[in-house]
Amino acid sequence: MSLKNVNTVLAAACALFALYLGLSFILAPEASTQGVGLPSWPAGNGDGFLIMKGTRELAMGLVIGILLVTGHRRALGWVLLMEAVAPFGDMINVLAHHGSIAAAFGIHGLTSAFIAATGLLILRETGKAHRAPAPAPAAQPA
């Protein structure tokens, strides 16, 4: 299996997982919070913040999917690197709120690392094509 095929599968997994998370937080915010590692349910009408998280995840999945489908692989690599910041921020948030250390590193930290590694692999794949010398123009008759 070529590097491009492996990268495509990894990027598709990132997109599908982000879409799944987004829809989960939008459609069932209370059920979705149990696995994120925070110690308690937000007080009051905190589900609004979870729906915002869901919208963010949904948008991230759509961006990855659109870049993947349209073949903009170099941009996809950079976007994946940028999007790895979101689960990293979630990890910091869980740790800052005295949540589960295992969930912070095991869920959010590993997710961030997976997304960043996928982005780096795609940039590596596209970097070779990006640096390839352009073919010489055909000689034109005088």
Count of distinct strands: 0
Q: Segments where pLDDT lies below 50 for 5+ residues? A: none
Distance between the termini: 47 Å
Q: Estimate the helix proportion, in percent.
A: over 70%
Whole-angstrom Rg? 19 Å
Proportion of strand residues: under 5%
User: Structural class from helices and strands?
Assistant: mainly alpha
Average residue-wise pLDDT: 88
Give the overall form: elongated
Give an overview in words.
This protein is an all-alpha fold and 142 residues long. Helix content is 75%, strand content 0%. Helix 5 runs antiparallel to helix 6.
Short note summarizing the structure:
By secondary structure, the protein is mainly α.
Labels describing this entry:
single chain; 142 residues; mainly alpha; 6 helices; 75% helix
List the SSEs and their pairings.
Layout: H1 3-27, H2 29-32, H3 47-70, H4 73-83, H5 85-96, H6 101-131
